[in-house]
Amino acid sequence: MLTPEIAVDLIIEALHMVMIMVMVLVVPGLITGLLVSLVQAATQINEQTLSFLPRLIVTLLAIILTGRWMAGYLMDYCVSIFTRAATLVG
């Protein structure tokens, strides 16, 4: 039987997984944007679109480098959800 405690645990695990997967993709782009902004401030270049390409490249590299891990992590989570659902039903 699905109790409120089990439901809360499932939601917490799902949010934890989402936070980890988003951080893996967003944090490198944020750091790259910060570094480009520092260079722009130091050189007084006021071009708004200059930081777009480096952030895009870093985000794509993060997807390429961690895509297999993220897919495996998501599959493991789905398997654990289905296993728990089977034990809760019967």
TrEMBL record:
Domain of life, per UniProt, equals Bacteria
Tell me where the transmembrane regions lie: 14-40, 52-71
> Chief subcellular site?
membrane
Q: How does it sit in the membrane?
A: Multi-pass membrane protein
* GO terms for cellular component: bacterial-type flagellum basal body; plasma membrane
Output one GO BP term.
bacterial-type flagellum assembly
Question: Does the record carry Transmembrane helix as a key word?
Answer: yes
Q: Which Pfam family, just one, is annotated for this protein? A: Bac_export_3
Give its localization: Cell membrane; Bacterial flagellum basal body
Q: Write down the InterPro entries for this protein, in alphabetical order.
A: Bac_export_3 (IPR002191), FliQ (IPR006305)
Q: Which UniProt keywords apply?
A: Bacterial flagellum, Cell membrane, Cell projection, Cilium, Flagellum, Membrane, Transmembrane, Transmembrane helix
Protein role: Role in flagellar biosynthesis.
Family in the record = Belongs to the FliQ/MopD/SpaQ family.
Q: What is this protein called?
A: Flagellar biosynthetic protein FliQ
- This chain's source organism reads Pseudoduganella violacea
